[in-house]
Design brief:
96 residues, globular, mainly alpha
Length: 96
């Protein structure tokens, strides 16, 4: 596993499957904080907001997850004029 002190490491829980506890060899507190943040970001969203984001994502040709991640990561809603960013998201989708 990468050292959490490496540049660009987000201190999130380990991604590998491990026989140990879900937080691996890291701090359990960091794991709990990440789980709570993930739940707040993806699970407890009001229905109207989900429907709004879904409609906007479909208009732009993105998935709900791609559109929501853009809001969470950059703090802004994509517009039809954000063509370069939308193209970049779609290119990243094809690489996966």
């Amino acid at each position: 596993m990468d050292s959490p002190n490496l540049r660009g490491h987000n201190r999130g829980p380990p991604l590998e499957d491990d026989a140990g506890p879900p937080w691996g060899d890291d701090d359990p507190y960091v794991y709990v904080c990440w789980k709570q943040a993930w739940t707040r970001a993806w699970k407890n969203i009001p229905r109207d907001i989900v429907l709004f984001r879904l409609q906007r994502a479909e208009i732009l040709g993105l998935t709900y997850e791609e559109y929501t991640l853009e809001i969470l990561e950059r703090g802004r809603h994509l517009q039809a004029t954000d063509t370069e960013r939308i193209k970049a998201i779609k290119r990243a989708r094809n690489r996966l």
